[in-house]
Amino acid sequence: MSGNPDVNEHLVHPDLADFVLVGDVGSGKTALTLALLESTDELLKTQAVVFHPSHIVDTPGEFISRPAYYGALLSTIAEIDTVVYLQPANSRAFSLPPGLLQVYPDKRVIGVVSKTDLPDADTESACRVLADHNISPPYFLTSTATGEGVADLRSFLISLQTSKAGTGAREAHAERAVASESEY
Ligand SMILES: Nc1nc2c(ncn2[C@@H]2O[C@H](COP(=O)(O)OP(=O)(O)O)[C@@H](O)[C@H]2O)c(=O)[nH]1
Ligand SMILES: [Mg+2]
């Protein structure tokens, strides 16, 4: 799904893959995407879904602020395993679309408290908002202004890929084992 001709990064982190960033307009999704990728792309307002290489998807805030877009959001994330939800450190408004986890109960949701450098940041309250909405820790506190937390989040996302590769191999092996048993 790297078909967006406007996005043409060389991959600094080829193992970083398979997540979609969701959160309110201005919560810092695009800035965090570019920081995770170490991309030098310019930060412009995201007007459309942006597909980076390796199944990394940045969504426009309209997906959240306008319920009419929920359907588009749901189809965008259908094939992606992990949702990275951004809760700005200076906001207590929760903006993960309510239907999302009902439609996709198996998605992994990672809670990020973004913009921790802001003077009115209250990371404790932001973490509580995540917990109150059933997003499980660990939470990642990030700032693209200072760089706080970006490397930790990147490592965590990469570790999900590594463990998935292991699981996939085990599952394939198990399937082969079952298949060969059933031959007898
Ligand atoms: N102080 C601060 N500003 C940020 C941070 N992340 C993003 N911003 C700013 O917040 C605004 C919205 O960021 P953007 O990534 O476009 O948000 P999006 O709408 O969720 O994609 C921009 O002006 C960014 O420069 C951060 O960690 N700290
Ligand atoms: Mg954006």
Taken together, the total number of domains comes to 1
Strand content: 5-15%
CATH topology: Rossmann fold
> What's the level 1 CATH class?
Alpha Beta
CA radius of gyration? 18 Å
Order of helices and strands: EHEEHHEHEHEH
Write the layout of secondary structure elements.
Layout: E1 19-23, H1 29-37, E2 50-52, E3 56-58, H2 62-65, H3 70-76, E4 82-88, H4 100-103, E5 108-114, H5 123-132, E6 140-141, H6 150-182
Helix pairs in contact: 1-6
The structure holds guanosine-5'-diphosphate (GDP) and magnesium ion (MG).
Task: Give a short synopsis of this structure.
The chain contains six helices and six strands; from the N terminus they run E-H-E-E-H-H-E-H-E-H-E-H.
Distinctive features:
Rossmann fold; disordered N terminus; single chain; binds guanosine-5'-diphosphate; 6 strands; disordered C terminus; 184 residues; alpha/beta; binds magnesium ion
Can you describe this structure?
This protein is of the alpha/beta class and 184 residues long. Helices cover 36% and strands 15% of the residues. It has helices spanning 29-37, 62-65, 70-76, 100-103, 123-132, 150-182, and strands at residues 19-23, 50-52, 56-58, 82-88, 108-114, 140-141. Strands 2-3-1-4-5-6 form a six-stranded mixed beta sheet, sandwiched between helices. The longest helix is centred in the last third of the chain and has 33 residues, at 150-182.
